[in-house]
Design brief:
16 strands; Hect, E3 ligase catalytic domain fold
């Protein structure tokens, strides 16, 4: 006796909660009683549509076919459906090959509502015509529902363009409240606050570290992949992109139609653009950056000898910049190449070069104004294209002449292409504008105590400032080269800023040795005297300060005579 494998399917969870499952099971049990079969296994695809063939490609139906092909299910077993549309609702060009694939796997096909069995090798024309008619009817029914749904969403899209909320399904940081017959979006403050914290932390830390800190701060359970999705989600700045179903891809794909200011603003657009610039520049697996990271030149400095990266480290309270290759003896210059970092980290702030950057940004703001003007022009252009697109769509619907319809469709396609190009330019302009505005705020840095606080403080606020300075310098400079032998730093300005920010060539000095305390110089200075215990600045003078100035630059021969001991001056 054949083993019977029951297959049930419904498209939505709501259907499963109603009578669909019971109806299918009762029909299959009646089929088994009629033929005297015993059910061996029940297979269910809950909430899975067959109109596009999803169940045949990845559901339990695909699983049972593969098991039959692999020999896990005995040849001649029967795969039972309530009716043909439980098996598939695809068009005949796809449904018929699926039907014969099941038979080819060595399975019989049972249709419960017709009490009919299709057996490999014995299929006649009458039986084939019956299943073809049933498949065609199932596809036509699904197509009709799809058309209704598509028309409904087309109407919904028009309502959304006027600002109307058309569904209760929203992102987790929003909820929908009903006021009479109208719906409105309401921010879920608890979730929104966590997302705002994510964006602020993402300016300084990688996604994994940002995730850890947010979970620690709020007691939440975010996953890294969720943050990766949220940090690029433009709904947080109020945008909604209309999607349309793509037959070839078999799923909804974004269209060129973008509704701005549709959702409540959770993240400021400037902050969103700044985070995009930071995340896009960030190298994967670049390591974790904590508040103790004092290196404002991260990713910028390289060795003049081998061109390798330079690492910043603190040892026994002293700062060093070291050639990474020299630590493994692969640098072209022999020995470990290192230089003290206390002076180097302050170099750009102490000298004329930093003042030049400040004066450029504070006094010559043409670039910023140009970018802002370009952004505003692009926004106005996108609005004009949207109006033109809407008018053209209406003319296509109203036009009866086919030739004129095709002409309008061509105009519509061009308008959508123009919209796509304008939006790409807008995204680029917004990213550059965010970097420039960030640079303006940094260019207003006061040289003095605030710089010292930013460079040395281990607080989160200071670490965030260091990260901003690092991003700013990365925007201005392509790289910085340290010559460890000559103890110099050379900066290379990016093409965008050449002629506006001049390159820097500066010497790098080491901090003073603090092991000996220097007393202030007073009176005259003795430059030679008797040997014996040294008591600095207590010996009788030999030259006055004025005499030493006059003698500066004079070459001295080696002293061979011993200076006679003088009596101490009373």
């Amino acid at each position: 006796m054949s083993r019977v494998y029951s297959y049930m399917r419904w498209s939505t969870v709501v259907q499963g909660e109603k009578s669909t499952e019971d109806r299918q099971r009762l029909a299959q049990e009646a089929f088994c009683r009629h033929y005297g079969y015993t059910l061996a296994e029940e297979l269910t695809d809950a909430g899975m549509s067959s109109f596009r063939g999803k169940n045949a490609h990845e559901g339990k139906l695909r699983e049972v076919i593969e098991r039959a092909k692999g020999g896990d299910i005995p040849q001649g077993s029967l795969l039972l459906f309530e009716n043909a549309d439980r098996m598939t609702r695809m068009g005949l060009s796809d449904a018929v090959p699926l039907f014969f694939e099941i038979l080819g796997a060595g399975l019989k096909i049972g249709i419960a509502d017709r009490l009919q069995i299709y057996t490999p090798g014995t299929l006649d024309l009458g039986g084939l015509m019956t299943i073809l008619v049933d498949m065609s009817r199932a596809n036509a029914e699904s197509q009709r529902k799809s058309d209704f749904s598509r028309k409904g969403w087309k109407d919904n899209h028009k309502r959304m363009e006027s600002g109307e909320v058309v569904t209760d399904k929203v992102a987790q940081w929003l909820t929908v409240e009903r006021v009479g017959e109208e719906r409105k979006f309401v921010e879920v403050k608890e979730v929104a606050d966590q997302i705002r914290a994510m964006f602020k932390l993402a300016l300084q830390y990688g996604v994994a570290e940002t995730c850890r800190r947010v979970n620690e701060q709020f007691g939440s359970a975010w996953k890294v992949y969720q943050l990766q999705y949220l940090l690029k989600n433009r709904r947080l700045i109020g945008e909604h992109t209309i999607t349309n179903f793509d037959e070839k891809a078999g799923k909804n794909l974004p269209s060129d139609r973008v509704l701005t200011d549709y959702y409540p603003l959770i993240i400021e657009p400037n902050l969103f653009a700044e985070v995009q610039a930071v995340v896009n520049k960030r190298r994967p697996f670049a390591g974790r950056q904590s508040a103790s990271n004092l290196n404002i030149y991260r990713g910028l400095v390289f060795c003049a000898g081998c061109g390798g990266s330079v690492r910043f480290m603190v040892k026994t309270g002293k700062e060093y910049f070291m050639c990474t290759n020299s630590m493994s003896h692969t640098c072209t210059v022999p020995g470990v190449q290192s230089i003290r970092g206390e002076h180097l980290r302050r170099l750009l702030f102490r000298f004329e070069h930093w003042t030049n950057l400040k004066s450029y940004f504070m006094e010559h703001s043409d670039d910023l104004k140009t970018l802002a003007r370009e952004r505003d022009e692009l926004l106005a252009l996108i609005d004009k294209i949207a109006v033109r697109t809407k008018q053209t769509e209406q003319r296509v619907m109203d036009e009866d002449d086919q030739d004129r319809q095709e002409a309008f469709i061509g105009i519509l396609a061009k308008a959508k292409g123009d919209d796509r190009i304008a939006r790409a330019k807008l995204a680029d302009a917004e990213a550059k504008l965010a970097e420039m505005e960030d640079a303006f705020s940094i260019a207003g840095f006061d040289i003095g105590d605030r710089v010292e606080w930013m460079l040395d403080d281990r607080s989160e606020a200071a670490a965030l400032e260091r990260a901003r300075i690092n991003r700013y310098l990365t925007t201005i400079f392509e790289k910085m080269i340290i010559n460890f032998q000559a103890k110099t730093l050379d900066t290379f300005v990016r093409e965008l800023f050449q002629g506006k920010v001049r390159p820097l060539h500066a010497g790098i000095s080491a901090p003073a040795d603090k092991r000996f305390k220097k007393a202030p110089v007073t009176g005259t200075i003795r430059i030679s005297g008797r040997t014996g215990p040294k008591k600095p600045h207590t010996q009788p003078p030999m030259f006055t300060t004025e005499e030493l100035v006059e003698l500066k630059g004079v070459g001295w021969e080696t002293v061979t005579e011993v200076i006679p001991k003088k009596k101490p001056v009373k």
